[in-house]
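Justification of resources, computational component.

The compute hours requested in this renewal are based largely on the per-chain cost of generating structure records like the one below. Each record pairs the submitted sequence with a full structure-token output. That output is archived, and it is also reused by downstream analysis tasks.
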Amino acid sequence: MAHAATLEIRQLSKQYEVEGAPLKVLDDISLTITPGEFVSIVGSSGCGKSTLLRLIVGLEADYRGEVLIDGNRIVGTSLDRGIVFQEHRLFPWLTVRDNIALGLLNAGLGAQQKRKEVQAHIELVGLKGFESAYPHQLSGGMSQRVAIARALVNRPEILLLDEPFGALDAMTRAHLQQELHHIWQAEGITMILVTHDVEEAVYLGDKVVVMEPRPGRIRRIVPVELAHPRNRVDLAFTHVKEEVLREFAGTPPPAEAPLHPVGGLPAGLRFAY
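The structure output for this chain reads:
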């Protein structure tokens, strides 16, 4: 089992230069993610969700503020952080086994240990028997499983997921959400999921970070205090989902109707006889 890291983001701001003018993408983001926590990030397009992941993974270094793992500032990419994108990005000329093994190129393990780790992760994502298959022989969901296994085979401290199921059909998506939950519990690592799907965010996350756009800011962090495994049709699940949706849309919660002082009915209710 991998070591789970603590991620601290302190007053993070990021801007790009577009046609000679500064364009602020993230503004004053502060967030703490504890070891082994699953955090979902939702928000409309343009709120900087993917940019935030790129900064965490170390693909960009030009920003203000701090991004720390276990108290150490992130400098460049590292085997401690894996990432899965919406597109699986598998090499079509490599088998499932060889695509996953790419994640161990710089791991410093012997050949036998690499084979053992690759096989363990093939089984972890439910692809035993497909070791010698090529990407064109796999479904979209199976290809994403390979991408997840490749990101996990180094046993990173943090796994970042950028809309990993966005291109899949609803049935496959729901099934892979369950599989990802199983993997998270089995590996015990910190996971950060960016998604547009509020139900997915609530189903998987210990908390849901709701962002607002232009520039990207944290609007609210909604805790999901529901036991796993979660039932999507439970009333408590629906309440949390509706709470996140209200924040996502920027609308206030509905006011409760005042009770009638005598009969306990809403004050504005009238009957016709």
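Residues 257-273 have pLDDT under 50 and may be disordered. The chain has two domains: 7-80+157-249, 91-155.
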